[in-house]
Structures are given as C-alpha cells and as structure tokens.
Amino acid sequence: DAMVIQNPRYQVTQFGKPVTLSCSQTLNHNVMYWYQQKSSQAPKLLFHYYDKDFNNEADTPDNFQSRRPNTSFCFLDIRSPGLGDAAMYLCATSREGGWYEQYFGPGTRLTVT
Amino acid sequence: AQSVTQLDSHVSVSEGTPVLLRCNYSSSYSPSLFWYVQHPNKGLQLLLKYTSAATLVKGINGFEAEFKKSETSFHLTKPSAHMSDAAEYFCVVSDSGGYNKLIFGAGTRLAVHP
Fold first, then answer.
1. Which residue of B has its CA nearest to A47?
2. Is the pLDDT at B28 greater than 60, yes or no?
C-alpha cells in the first residue's frame, strides 16, 4: 500500500545533541510537511516543501532545519534540542491544491533527556 | 483569514449511542473542510472531506458530516458509537494557495464507555 513512513518511531536524545528524523513516501506527492505536536494540542506546522522549494513558517525556531534530497524522502534536523522540543513529530504529504487532503505518517515521538 | 472552532474539548458517550462532534469554521471563500482522527501515539487519519460537492459527506467507519454554509458548521456524527471510536478528533479547514496549509481546530477528545 502507498503510504508515509517515519523512522524511528521513538527517539531519545540528550539535551543539545543533534538529532535527525526521517520521512519517506510512496505516494509520489510533490508537497511534504513537518508538524510538531505537543501533548493534548493540535499539530503545528513547522515547514513544508513544494517540490524542492522550502517554505518555513514564520514562528519556526532556527533550531529546526529540513532537507528534501528527492521526491520520496524528507528529513527534519534539530540542531540543539532543548527540553521544550520533546514532542511528536508528524510528516505529511499531499498533492498541490487546497482541496486535497494530507496523508500523515505515524509520527516520531522525541524525548529529550 | 480562516479559523476553526471545535465547540467541545471532551465528549463522552456510551457504546451504541449517537456521536456528535461540533465544528464551526470561518472562511472568506468556499472552503475545503476535513475531519481527521488520531488514536493515541498514532498519526492522523482522514475520516472525510468536503470540497464543494455534496453537502452531506460520508466517511470511513460510519462517520458523516454535513456542511451548512448558513450556519458555518461542519459537525461530525455517527449513529452508534463503538469502543474503537475513542480518540482525538480534529476539524480542519484548508487555506488557499498552491499548497494546502491546514488550519486545525483544538481537537475534541471522544470517550466511549461500555
């Protein structure tokens, strides 16, 4: 089945130690998104790629970076994780256009110690 | 600007009774509206979507929603709750533009009791 895959599902990192989360898709969608979701909150969009064009949300901290080497893969890099960055990180994909739904991966639960 | 208000943060029902999760939206144009469900420690799954076709939208797992423009509402219903329906539900409106930025409601936690 076509899907969005995230690895790892659970990630533990130390305060200040860089960490990379990965996302891959078999849907061949040209738009990919990264969300941060904290407990009992709605997902918060960090950034998205429209093909190779990177679009950062205005309030996304500089600590968060992303790479999209090809259509299928997208990475979230957290350069110096703080305790406040502990959250669920969700990757999603869609076709372009506001009428298309987003397809979400299962998420990566990040713990910062 | 678009916005979404989910009128109940928590809803509790008994198994086999109807479910109603309420959602109001604000949009300056004809919106695309979605309901997503999230089970604990899982990603979001699309239940149904409205994109200016039929106003009564049927989704997966017996859920449906009715788009009412005059009331700016998009309430989610199910005739008979099942224990497996216990989850967080998000009402979402899609922003305009070449990519579909989603505007999320705060979510409604549905509890289903035996």
1. B101
2. yes
| Backbone Cα Rg of chain A | 13
| Interface contact flag, B107 A40, Cβ < 8 Å | yes
Residue B102 pairs with which residues in a beta bridge?
A: B94
**Distance, CA of A93 to CA of A91 (rounded, Å):** 7
Compare all CA atoms of chain A with the CA of B10 and give the residue at the minimum distance.
A40
Alpha-carbon distances, residue B103 vs A7, A16, B5, B6 (angstroms): 26, 31, 10, 12
CA B101 to chain centre: 17
Per-residue pLDDT tens digits for B51-80: 877 889 999 999 999 999 999 999 999 999
Q: How far apart are CA A10 and CA A107, in angstroms?
A: 9
Asked whether the beta carbons of residue B43 and residue A96 sit closer than 8 angstroms, the reply is no
pLDDT per position as a tens digit, A1-56: 669 999 999 999 999 999 999 999 999 999 999 999 999 999 999 999 999 999 99
Top-confidence range, A89-98, B17-26, B49-58, B96-105 = B17-26
**Closest in B42, B94, B106 to A98, CB measured:** B94
